[in-house]
Amino acid sequence: MKKILVIGAGRSATSLIDYLLKNSSAYLWQITVADVDKALAEQKINGHANGTAISINIKEDETRRAVIQLHDFVISMLPAFMHGDIARDCVEFGKHMATASYVSAEMKALNIEAKQKKLLLLNECGLDPGIDHASAMKVIDEIKHQGGEVTSFKSFCGGLVAPESNDNPWGYKFSWAPRNVILAGQGTAQYLQDGIMKFIPYNRLFTQTDVIEIVPYGKFDAYANRDSISYIDAYGLYSISTMLRGTLRQQNYCKAWNVFIKLGLTDDSSKITHAGELTYTSLIDAFLPNTKKTVKEKLKHLMKDEWDKDIEKMLDSLELFDDKKITIQEGSPAILLQHLLEEKWKLKENDKDMIVMQHQFEYRLPSGPDIQKLNSSLGVVGRDQHHTAMALTVGLPLAITVKNFLNGEFELYGVQIPTKKEIYEPLLKELEEHNIRFHEEHVQ
Amino acid sequence: MKKILVIGAGRSATSLIDYLLKNSSAYLWQITVADVDKALAEQKINGHANGTAISINIKEDETRRAVIQLHDFVISMLPAFMHGDIARDCVEFGKHMATASYVSAEMKALNIEAKQKKLLLLNECGLDPGIDHASAMKVIDEIKHQGGEVTSFKSFCGGLVAPESNDNPWGYKFSWAPRNVILAGQGTAQYLQDGIMKFIPYNRLFTQTDVIEIVPYGKFDAYANRDSISYIDAYGLYSISTMLRGTLRQQNYCKAWNVFIKLGLTDDSSKITHAGELTYTSLIDAFLPNTKKTVKEKLKHLMKDEWDKDIEKMLDSLELFDDKKITIQEGSPAILLQHLLEEKWKLKENDKDMIVMQHQFEYRLPSGPDIQKLNSSLGVVGRDQHHTAMALTVGLPLAITVKNFLNGEFELYGVQIPTKKEIYEPLLKELEEHNIRFHEEHVQ
């Protein structure tokens, strides 16, 4: 009998908990779901005999430590910055741990002790990071196995809305943390192109986009992620000359989002007090010069040749020029914008979200000098606004890999991410049973 | 006999320490100058009989607390984030304290206890903040005394290089913390114009500038400071309809600085590793698309109609297109840019810096409905690169006000800034003896 503790019962934990409960009898698991909101935890357990819901405030050290000691494996679905205390407790008490988040400095610091104690600290085992690692490394290892060399790797991922639920001109609804969408790209994007480091600053990020086609899901705009460079190490691609990771949005989204950046509405570092006295129209007006023109005319003038009919339609759909009241009292421009978009871009009860991912490889085989091209693509459509493609693709890789570890399918300890064959091979195989299947295609 | 402790012996402390030593015999003061670098402290004391130099690491709690207990008044010339511990110690041990920095949350939290113990916590008593408060409040109080009402207040300040030392096309050399110059304006600038709140985001801040003339010092570009709004409270101008504070630079500076912003060179949130392998030219190239053009041509193309001959000359003066090696190994784009500018914009041994400040008041008197206009202007030129106008105008207000307090010229306790008449009146009077004199002029 293994005792598994899942901390955090939010939307992204739905598919994870479903999988664990479904397999609990076969593998003799007891599943505890802990959340500040006990009702939410109970809802996810849904009366299953092998599940227990508890209420927990993760910041209360004694409670957290007591609960962790009662389990064998801890899965944290909390925001990344909350993993540190849990990880330290796990290593102290000899428990394994898994998260879908990037390996933090705190996590890295526990690596040696965890290895000595034969404890697994699994990270980056969701969608992105997670499925991206697994599916990319499968192809990279196959190319290396043939004696080949990867010369270019571009990889794109987007969490979007499914075509059948796409009823706003942005082609976007929130299937994960809205705040991350609003602040996306701030800083400097870094990538490698033809052997040369390239940088894109935030003020130009959403104008320097590529078009990526993923059949049959359509064409998408891609903007560069902040960090593409660390993947050279992570994937062992030391002789690569092009390395780019990007985020996908429906076409037109990026050029319209650029209006918010130029206006100043995505800044999160300054607080606007008395926001409750403003409308979104007067907020935008406050960012524009005082002239006799209408707010929309002033905005057009600001954007010059970057303005077009698509953008106008997209901004209109947010009631930006309709004197819509701001209903929070204060906040950064980014928070005020998020407040509006959370209303406008909410997944409705029967809305389906969609995940699209594409890796583009270029490589050379020992058999000849020609560059080979291979695209590996994935599309997943969600069931409804609870069982989203996002929850499925974040939760399943974590649940499957925890199961594989507990069943002794791989023996790796310390900090691990799913770039190793013994982790990704059974993971990708089982994901296919859930219709999460990459389509690989040689291109010209 | 009063014992005064000055913590921090950097360039900005020079005039402060000179003043205290010069007056030490008359007022029976013992001056201790404490710095991590004892030689620097000794240099500032320069063998004066009433001065003692000591070495101190402010982060060692026991040392700091022991030293503070031995004094009656503590003046901190350290960076603002280091004042907190000192202030808490001062209040605990019953010592007065003064800084030239903005009132921090930590300082505010000590206000009540300091008042109860009759301790002064003087802040914002340098140049800006400091002399700006004093000189503005003098005019505001005079207008109020006549029953008048201030309808508009604009205030500009710049720490620049004196015309006779102005030998680079930017008209700029560093007379204070270079890092603050590089990062200036990041976030959202907020001000009040004709009764309406206005915002300017960083990506447009250096393009939306005003021209301010201060006779006989010349015409300057002014960009809006991040916070103009809190001055409404600080100056009690509750019925004002225009409130703007700005920073002055020589003409053309702002339009050229905007190139750095658009390029992405002022971002401080992302680290560029392997910078040591780059030149400034290849760094700029990395921020631009890969085409066959030269780096300068690509940059011209990026800036479109924002590019001109002035900008080209200013950028050329920094050797940006001459394959100049970057001599630090890694850092944010902002740090790499700062490294270059510290070399290019260094005050030379006999260079003089210059402070310019102008307040522009509009007000109505009970005698009539017409708007009156008054400008109050200041210019100060430094002696050399040690005795800068910056050090003089930061250090003297602090030294004079500490002297006035110790001599019983005002009795105010708790957190104070020089907006009160009993502080600013004797301060402005004595500053005139040092040729720091505002010129007031009614304008049409």
Explain what you see:
Two copies of one chain form a homodimer. The first copy, chain A, has 444 residues and is an alpha/beta fold. Chain A folds into three domains: 2-128 and 390-435, 3-Layer(aba) Sandwich (Rossmann fold), CATH 3.40.50; 131-252 and 349-385, Dihydrodipicolinate Reductase, domain 2 (2-Layer Sandwich); 257-344, Domain 3, Saccharopine reductase (Orthogonal Bundle), CATH 1.10.1870. Helix content of chain A is 36%, strand content 24%. Chain A contains 18 helices and 16 strands. The first copy, chain A, has a seven-stranded parallel β-sheet with strand order 3-2-1-4-5-6-15, sandwiched between helices. Chain A binds chain B through residues 186-188, 190, 193-194, 196-204, 208, 226, 229, 261-264, 267, 269-270, 272-274, 286-287, 289-290, 332-333, and chain B through 186-188, 190, 193-194, 196-204, 208, 226, 229, 261-264, 267, 269-270, 272-274, 285-287, 289-290, 332-333.
